[in-house]
Amino acid sequence: MKKSIVTIVLSGTFALSACQSSSDPNVRAQNAEFGCIAGTVGGAIVGGLIGSTIGGGTGRVIGSAIGIGGGGYLGNRLACG
Fold first, then answer.
1. Among 31, 42, 50, 80, which residue has the fewest nearby CB atoms (within 10 Å)?
2. Angle, CA 28 vertex, CA 6 and CA 25 arms, to 5°
3. What is the count of structural domains for the chain?
4. Considering the entire predicted model, what is its pTM?
């Protein structure tokens, strides 16, 4: 069950981070900003889901928190360059 949720979230994250190309510099800037935000939020969601599979009770909460922070950071680095 959790593996399928992670797969769905990962697929959604990749779909959200895709940018359309345009010759207009304003559109490019907006697409880049959207991709950056989507990568950060998507990474945090995926990291939180993966972190929540670790441990139980308080360990699960700590794992989720670390996963959210780490996933958000990694998603930001990948999407924003």
1. 80
2. 175
3. 1
4. 0.63
